[in-house]
Predict the structure.
Amino acid sequence: MKPAKLTSLPQWHALQQHFAQTGSQSLRELFAADPQRGEQLTAEAVGLYMDYSKQRVSSDTVQLLCELAEACELRQRTEAMFRGEKINTTENRAVLHVALRAPAGEKIMVDGHDVVPDVHEVLDRMRAFADQVRSGSWRGHSGKRIRNVISIGIGGSDLGPVMAYEALRDYSEREMTFRFVSNVDGTDFVEATHDLDAAETLFVVCSKTFTTLETLSNAQAARAWCLNALGGDDKAIARHFVAVSTNADEVQKFGIDTAHMFGFWDWVGGRYSMDSAIGLSTMLAIGPDHFREMLAGFYAMDEHFRHTPLERNLPVLMGLLGIWNTNFLDAATVAVLPYEQYLKRFPAYLQQLTMESNGKYVTHDGSPVDYATGPIYWGEPGTNGQHSFYQLIHQGTRLVPCDFIGFGRPLQPVPTSTGGDQHDLLMANLIAQGEALAFGKTADQVRAEGVDEALVAHRTFEGNRPSTTILASSLTPHILGTLIALYEHSVFVQGVIWDIDSFDQWGVELGKQLAKTTIAELTAQDLPELHHDSSTNTLIRRYRQLRDSRG
Ligand code: G6Q
């Protein structure tokens, strides 16, 4: 049976009606009407505390959103994912990143085959390899120990490993250097290698398909760099290159022995792959035990998501609040603001996870949607952002819902001259920003401060700007796993409501095709006849002139 169109569901109409009746209530009014609100509109599980009382919702709103989720069969769709059904319909694939963190002994079937033992077999191989490299028993071609690891990959084969390395740097082997090369811009490769000794460098080439232009170009550059420094002996490659891929044929063609290949499967999407073998650089950096803790964190959130009632379920709440903000408050964006320097790449990671997953304008059956889907994600760590773009969040004309993320204990305590710790200053800012966004400052409050009447309007803050605050004790590998899985599942929840395929990426595939013709036109000895529009033709000519002119 064809699923009912979202906007014709009675539960959607109930939300519209609810919005018409209550949508004008401000956060000031909501808090004044219910003194317990800040304690009640919260949820807590697996080490994360989520305060959503500063979202423009009441418990009735949450109830109605949960009813919508039930009507969209969220429970059944979640079970279908965990059961290994091919819910990525446009690619006819199962979606089983949850199998990557399933403990040994669980059973998850894909086409009649239990994939959990396969996952653990790869994890065991990764662990053995990581131990060899970290202990120094794996040697480079000239006998030197490996001190540098460079992960080459792009998109889903890069953003997760970079984010996780930065996030868990405090747990990493400080005697080793870890770098990441993604861009086909040669600068990326050159800057990553310029001060390194090839004899001590290991490349981890990460590509699900092993056909991606950027990654293969950088891998070729790495190969040439290595051979050049190590005397041109092809045998060197075996000691300095390993591959992470699903495509053994292409790995072999590139010249990497498949004995040094770590596999994963077509049911792992690129942007959901950082806890697969794509996380090999993470394991090399933080060690197998910390990696296992991270997987346990993911798994704890998976279990919470699967088994907790909707109204207390963190990913469900986060996903549904996003639906409310996107489809009823018309917010086009979400700012992710970690007050934790180690999470500096977390917003970039989430950009791909959220926008590549839910940036779709047709439903599963190919019909155009008549509602907004995935919002634009962006962000920077606090407090830095406060000194730049927060102005627009406080006083701009657009509504920017914010996710604040903070921790009780710093990984790097730094005492202040007054006897406290800088971490208190950091967290005071997080808490104060959420408060200011919600409640603003009235003109009367501004006047009471003695501000000149001409400036009162400028210094007034209307408030009523929604935010969620997520707190955890400290940034451990386990907590990082729970945090990532929280966002992964909230993306899933939204995809279910919007009835879109959150697991394909035809826009990315397009990008992989588009440049092919143009590359030939830029690199041909003589300018070929061009058949693009006049702008594209002119740009190609102009680029060739700029490139080829001397002086
Ligand atoms: C992720 C996307 C995309 C992909 C890269 C790299 O979900 O599909 O970002 O990860 O294009 O692809 P390969 O791993 O195949 O090189």
